[in-house]
Design a protein that fits this description.
This protein is of the alpha+beta class. It has one domain: Lipoprotein localisation LolA/LolB/LppX (outer membrane lipoprotein receptor (LolB), chain A). The two termini are 17 Å apart.
């Protein structure tokens, strides 16, 4: 499996972090003084609690000593909260097709280069700390220590129009070492950087963001978007 296929927990962290974008419009960063990391986290939490749907395009880079040469990928992502279900879908268009999708009851990962799809109950990913927050049952302040950015992160991506915060998982069992978020004054995330325990960094840059793009009453359309039927001959692995 190549690096963009990703270990399970890191793959989950990637697409559920993007669900931070499931946030409504309220609150802006102060322009005349630095905003505390905790205040940035609070407005992200508030936006997430009210948003119903989101889509965006993404560019991804994974790099580090354990990763070998840098790997790049791109695609689109979709999120929906309706009918008591939290649904999401990541479509990787390059370097080869991959689909990560949850309809709220089942979670599937399809890898075209392996001709495989791994299927598991959605409850399996609900056990993950970060997933619990981004699906509405967890809180940033409860699951993470919220800090200012590391010095090297500031040097790499400083932008006076953005606030950068660092999230450090409180759980000693987390495979994620820390997460950095680049946040606009309107509480939109432009960049996400995840560093695992092996110092491998996965960076996501988001664009073409559409908020509340989906008709939550259209259950037929939701069922179509948040399910995936693999090509004939795909090996299905149930976990």
């Amino acid at each position: 499996m190549n690096l963009l296929s990703l270990p399970r927990l890191l793959a989950l962290s990637l697409f559920i972090l993007a669900a931070l974008m499931l946030l409504p419009e309220n609150g802006t960063a102060a322009e005349d003084s630095p905003e505390a990391p905790g205040a940035v986290a609070e407005r992200l939490q508030a936006r997430y609690d009210a948003m119903q749907s989101l889509s965006f395009t993404f560019a991804q880079t994974t790099e580090g000593q354990m990763a070998g040469r840098p790997r790049k990928g791109s695609g689109t992502a979709y999120f929906l909260k309706s009918g008591g279900l939290k649904r999401m879908r990541w479509n990787y268009d390059s370097p080869e097709e991959q689909v990560l999708v949850s309809d709220g009851t089942t979670f599937s990962m399809y890898f075209s280069n392996l001709q495989q799809m791994i299927v598991s109950p959605a409850e399996a990913i609900e056990e993950d700390m970060t997933y619990s927050f981004f699906t509405g049952s967890g809180k940033l302040s409860e699951d993470f220590s919220i800090l200012g950015p590391n010095k090297n992160v500031i040097e790499e991506g400083e932008d006076k129009d953005l606030r950068i915060i660092q999230l450090v998982p409180k759980s000693a069992e987390s495979q994620v070492q820390d997460i950095h978020l680049w946040v606009t004054a309107e509480s939109l995330i432009q960049r996400i950087e995840i560093r695992d325990q092996f110092d491998t960094r996965t960076i996501l840059t988001l664009s073409d963001i559409r908020e509340n793009f989906f008709d939550t009453a259209d259950e037929e359309a939701a069922a179509k978007l948040f399910t995936f039927k693999p090509p004939e001959g795909t090996e299905i692995i149930h976990e």
